[in-house]
Design a protein that fits this description.
The protein is α+β, with helices and mostly antiparallel strands. It is globular. A hairpin with a 2-residue loop joins β1 and β2. The strands form four sheets. Strands 7, 8, 9, 10, 11, 12, 13 and 14 form an eight-stranded antiparallel β-sheet that branches. A two-stranded antiparallel sheet has the order 1-2. Helices cover 26% and strands 27% of the residues. The longest helix is centred in the first third of the chain and has 12 residues. The chain folds into two domains: 118 residues, Putative xylanase fold; 109 residues, putative xylanase like domain (putative xylanase like fold). α1 runs antiparallel to α2, α2 crosses α3 and α3 crosses α4.
Length: 251
């Protein structure tokens, strides 16, 4: 397990100190580095984490509790799984991992509870604004607005969601790629999305969902069509991670 407290710059493996090159994430960054495209690196890293356990509320912080910058490679919820894999895929060395994760998880990289991307709508917006991802548009895509109230301690917020009908997603499978991030829009009042994960394109072109699933208790692959059917999904949003440009500054 990788942990970093607020203001610290040391890693731990479990509870015992370890050199960064000994960590699981460091090994996965090294393994994936040979792949030219970020989608391929996401595929390699995320596949190695299949079977990792699901954990609720893996992050530490709150309206009245100091935010801690938590890094874990042993257990995830759906969002921290995507964040961890994406940060590792954007890293050339393990030294890049912390600043990459900080940019992904927090608005402007500020380690503070109000700056954390609590809603996936904000996660998407901020990670498009900072150039880490871009939105994917398919036929039938529309922008919808929703009032979100789910997170206690945050003000009521009106957010914009990119809404793609699932029929368009399944009917345009050839336009998706391994590593695309998918968010599943919620029909419940007060919440924007109920789940997220990565698209993986199978050998036969079938779309898979690689995700940390609470219902299964672990990271796993499922066919995207089966997940949509079981959960009654009607609309999703899709993001495509962008390549890391040579010389890009990460602070």
């Amino acid at each position: 397990m990788l942990q970093v407290a607020a203001g610290a710059a040391t890693f731990a493996l479990g509870l015992a100190p370890a050199r960064t090159e000994e960590t699981r994430i460091a090994a996965l960054i090294d393994k994936a580095r040979a792949d030219t495209f970020i989608g391929a690196r996401i595929g390699v890293i995320s596949q190695a984490l299949i079977g990792s356990r699901y954990v609720e509320y893996p992050l530490i912080g709150g309206p009245r509790k100091q935010e801690q910058f938590v890094l874990r490679d042993d257990a995830f919820d759906c969002v921290t799984f995507c964040e961890t894999v994406l940060a590792a895929a954007r890293s050339l060395t393990v030294a890049d991992f912390q600043p990459q994760l900080r940019r992904i998880r927090y608005r402007d990289g500020e380690i503070a509870w109000p700056a954390r991307n609590h809603y996936f709508a904000d996660w998407s917006l901020n990670n498009i604004a900072n150039g880490i991802c871009r939105a994917i548009v398919l036929p039938g895509t529309a922008m919808v607005e929703k009032t979100v109230t789910y997170m206690h301690g945050l003000p009521v917020e009106r957010v914009g969601l990119t809404s793609i009908p699932v029929a368009s997603v399944l009917g345009n499978a050839e336009r998706l790629a391994t590593g695309d991030v998918v968010g599943f829009l919620s029909r419940r009042p007060g919440i924007d999305y109920f789940h997220t994960g990565f698209i993986v394109v199978g050998k036969d072109g079938e779309l898979l969902l690689r995700h940390a699933a609470k219902s299964k208790g672990r990271v796993l692959d499922q066919t995207l069509s089966a997940f949509i059917a079981v959960n009654g999904v009607r609309h999703v949003s899709l993001l495509r991670p962008q390549e890391v440009w040579s010389g890009e500054a990460v602070v």
